[in-house]
């Protein structure tokens, strides 16, 4: 997951929007907006369009070529008249025109292999785009859950502080009545001040986490940016009932890391085939038509200068033939290109193997993280319940004067820490399960917590 986090630092550039007043963004809206407006995704979409153009061009390469040409010149001095093929030492005008067509008959199946490569490249480009979308979705979800955690942490701290303020008022009355010493009041006041500091720090953490998500979306109005207030309680975790090996096999179908590596290997293999086609001779057919005109040509039967159209019909001609080109020696260029392509194939095989190993490691890590997060959350819930009972017991003892303020505050601090641990482990659990579900093919932006 570190790779995903690092990658996200480069992916989220160039999204521009200004938040509307009081708009609260859901996770679905955040992810959808990022996928729609992220510049890196837009660039990747342009790459897919380029691969479509390449595929279209590969199809067009099977068709014959057809070209027309024409020229006009004014010649002085001794020049060859193109219509008579004789030297003429005078100024004359001449023109020529023609149409040529050619078709590749054989070149080692290069055109066919180029078409296959263009199709593979189009698929690879789409895989890259889909992988980028997945990475962005995970990064947005992580930032979104971080805000949820900070929001609930503030609620816990404020609830604890309300109880402390109630105890502060009660203690003040008991001190004024001479029941409790002044030190107990000072102890409660210190606890109240500490809790106020914690609330301020938590509010700052919340603001920073909002800025983090807003910057991912390039929202400029940080003060107004906020996410939707929803109650995220316990949620289904049936994904943990799946075996890790089953999730790995599913991930290979749903996650694009391995697919990208597989398509890159196919591209390298096709490049090798294309490099080898240069060993083969090439055979092409051509056909052409041309005609000439000169301003000095004379019709000897009449003694008059020949007309423009008469010359075009008289001095025209056609050509048709085959052209064979056999590679004999070109400085070992073809051989070295083949060797380079073979090395790229081997490198792509290693990258594919590494992609499979990385995916397996990431899934196992996500699987263990989710299971441990669940255990941590359940343990935190049990600890909170125990700390709550201990706090209530300490509070009763303090009220009747059987305990001092220091012991009571220690019990209160332990209860506060237990509540904070519940919040922290809860949202860690949420995100870890969502990452595991992502590997199983469940979109990261689907949160259906009960």
From TrEMBL:
Subcellular location: Cell outer membrane
SUPFAM superfamilies: Outer membrane efflux proteins (OEP) (SSF56954)
Recorded superkingdom: Bacteria
Major location category of this protein: membrane
A GO molecular-function annotation: efflux transmembrane transporter activity
Transport found in the keyword field: yes
UniProt entry keywords in alphabetical sequence: Cell outer membrane, Membrane, Signal, Transmembrane, Transmembrane beta strand, Transport
Presence of keyword Membrane: yes
Record InterPro entries: OMP_efflux, TolC-like
Signal sequence coordinates: 1-19
One GO cellular component, as annotated: efflux pump complex
Pfam families xrefs: OEP
Similarity field: Belongs to the outer membrane factor (OMF) (TC 1.B.17) family.
PANTHER family listed in its UniProt record: OUTER MEMBRANE PROTEIN TOLC
Protein name, as recorded: TolC family protein
Origin species: Formosa sediminum
């Amino acid at each position: 997951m570190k790779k995903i986090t690092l990658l996200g630092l480069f992916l989220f550039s160039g999204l521009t929007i200004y938040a509307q007043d009081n708009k609260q963004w859901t996770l679905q809206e955040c992810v959808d907006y990022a996928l729609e407006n992220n510049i890196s995704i837009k660039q990747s979409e342009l790459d897919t369009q380029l691969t479509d153009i390449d595929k279209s061009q590969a199809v067009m390469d099977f068709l014959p070529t057809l070209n027309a040409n024409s020229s006009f010149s004014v010649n002085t001095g001794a020049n060859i008249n193109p219509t008579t093929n004789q030297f003429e030492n005078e100024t004359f005008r001449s023109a020529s025109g023609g149409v040529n067509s050619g078709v590749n008959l054989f070149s080692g199946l290069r055109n066919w292999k180029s078409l296959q490569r263009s199709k593979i490249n189009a698929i690879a480009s789409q895989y890259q785009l889909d992988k980028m979308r997945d990475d962005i979705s995970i990064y947005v979800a992580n930032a979104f859950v971080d805000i949820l955690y900070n929001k609930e942490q503030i609620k816990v701290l404020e609830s604890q502080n309300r109880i402390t303020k109630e105890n502060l008022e009660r203690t003040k009355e008991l001190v004024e009545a001479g029941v409790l010493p002044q030190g107990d009041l000072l102890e409660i006041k210190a606890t109240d001040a500490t809790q106020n500091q914690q609330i301020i720090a938590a509010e700052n953490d919340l603001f920073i986490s909002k800025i983090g998500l807003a910057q991912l979306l390039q929202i400029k109005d940080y003060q107004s940016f906020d996410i939707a207030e929803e109650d995220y309680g316990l949620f289904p975790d049936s994904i943990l009932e799946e075996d890790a090996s089953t999730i790995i096999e599913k991930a290979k179908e749903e996650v694009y890391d391995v697919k990208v590596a597989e398509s890159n290997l196919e591209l390298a293999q096709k490049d090798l085939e294309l490099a080898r086609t240069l060993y083969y001779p090439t055979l092409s057919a051509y056909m052409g038509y041309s005609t000439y005109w000169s301003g000095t040509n004379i019709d000897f039967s009449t003694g008059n200068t020949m007309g423009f159209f008469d010359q075009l019909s008289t001095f025209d001609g056609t050509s048709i033939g085959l052209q064979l080109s056999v590679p004999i020696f070109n400085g070992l260029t073809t051989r070295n290109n083949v060797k380079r392509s073979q090395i790229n194939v081997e490198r792509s095989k290693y990258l594919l193997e590494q992609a499979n190993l990385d995916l397996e490691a990431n899934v196992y890590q996500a699987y263990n993280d989710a299971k441990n997060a669940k255990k941590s959350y359940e343990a935190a819930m049990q600890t909170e319940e125990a700390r709550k009972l201990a706090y209530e017991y300490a509070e009763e003892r303090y009220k009747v004067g059987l305990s001092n303020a220091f012991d009571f505050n220690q019990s209160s601090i332990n209860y506060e820490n237990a509540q904070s641990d519940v919040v922290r482990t809860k949202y860690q659990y949420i995100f870890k399960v969502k990452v595991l579900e992502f590997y199983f093919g469940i979109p990261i932006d689907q949160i259906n917590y009960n």
